[in-house]
Amino acid sequence: MIIMEPSRQLMIVGNAASLQVTLQQLSGYGWSIHHANNAQEAMKLLNGEACKVGLTTIVPSVSSLPFELDWRSGLSQIQWVAIIDRDALQHDKVRDLIYNACYAYQAHPTDVKKLDILLESALDMASLHEAHPIPTLSCPGDEYHMVGESPVMQQLYRTIYKVAAADAPVLITGESGTGKELTAHAIHVHSSRHHGPFNVVNCGALPSGLIQSELFGHERGAFTGANHRKIGIIESSQGGTLFLDEIGDLPLDMQVNLLRFLENLKVFRVGGLQEIPVDVRVLAATHIDLEKAVDSGEFREDLYHRLNVLQVRMPALRDHPEDIEPLAQFFFRKFSAEKPSRVHGFSRDCTVVMQQYPWPGNIRELVNRVRRSMVMCEHRLITPSDMGLERSHGLSREADTLQQVRDMAESEAIRAALARNKHKVRHAARELGVSRVTLYRLIEKHRIDKSGGADEGKRPIHRYQDSFNQPQHDEGRSQTPADQSYSY
Ligand SMILES: Nc1ncnc2c1ncn2[C@@H]1O[C@H](COP(=O)(O)OP(=O)(O)OP(=O)(O)O)[C@@H](O)[C@H]1O
What pTM was computed for the model? Predict the structure, then answer.
């Protein structure tokens, strides 16, 4: 007999015909289903039945988004899980809706066991909902200070407060340079572990032969050259938080060991005879689509679910353009304080161009461009050219043919995908849904060169071109699209 848990109340809004079988199965998992025909009924259910989790279908037609507007006026307290056709993800509107309004989604065909786990974790998230209403994350003067007051950033701060209050693993996803490490740090400092250490490991940068001993440590004499006992980074995170950056780069054999650690929270030093318990919270980040990596066998599914208990999705900078200027001003002041400069600020033209630029390398690219512009600028105000954001000479909007517009869109999509994927052609090709051979051909066609810009003079159409030849400084660990080379 199934004992009904009082909190397992699930709300369905609108037409649930296609979910009938799924709902029956979910009842078998102890979910009590409440059906509302519209938002008003849903609001009543929200108050009367204490529903905190909702299940909805989303298909790419406007009429099928019954709560699209209503969720803003009350139903946002519900943690929504969406059931979609994978094809529906092609539609911007569906992607936006899932991103803005849903806790998670599952693509057809429905896997009820996994859906039950998703709903359970949505329920956990819902109970954290009221925890921290303050939508700012300010630590001025701190290297981890987060800038941005747009609604998108406020939502991010709320999410950070919520997940900080739980002691479960968090998966932070988002494009490169969006602030995943900053977010991991913010989760740590707002958690009960803030007195403990915050350790960062870049899984992609660990030397392959040493990963095991770097993470888990080793005993003296465990292997040639092990002259001393070494405490691994997991063990040294005792009482604090371990941030595993670029988790998608962790080799498969290490994924098994990490999974084992996450399951029993004990480490075995290489050459050690006993397991050592470690009290640590693990946060992981990735800029790649881990679900796809699971599908292609590059990432273990069990580890993915273990890490993905709570998820924070980082917005791309182009999704909160209101923050571009405050961010640029913040870094301008920061760098001016570090090294006095005769530059007074940004020209109006520059501010406009910054707004229009798509920032494929996100905030890291902005930081680097501001820093370099302060070196390059020969006047009192920074120009678009100092930022390396000149408009292309060849581009005249009136003269654009359809083919030119197509070429431009294709070229920009490729450049952005390469930037997002740290210029790894294989990953960018997968994201763009083309073969590697096709992507090489297109890189050649658009003359996208090794510097990540385009070959000036030869490039037919690009809205922006990079005028930097050599990077002067670099802020952060990886480089901007302007100074990376591709890894084939
Ligand atoms: N909201 C923000 N306010 C101020 N600075 C920010 C913000 N977000 C990111 N940055 C800055 O942008 C740079 C990149 O941030 P971070 O390293 O956290 O990004 P990331 O998403 O982890 O990048 P990657 O995927 O390449 O590891 C850093 O210099 C960081 O300080």
Answer: 0.60
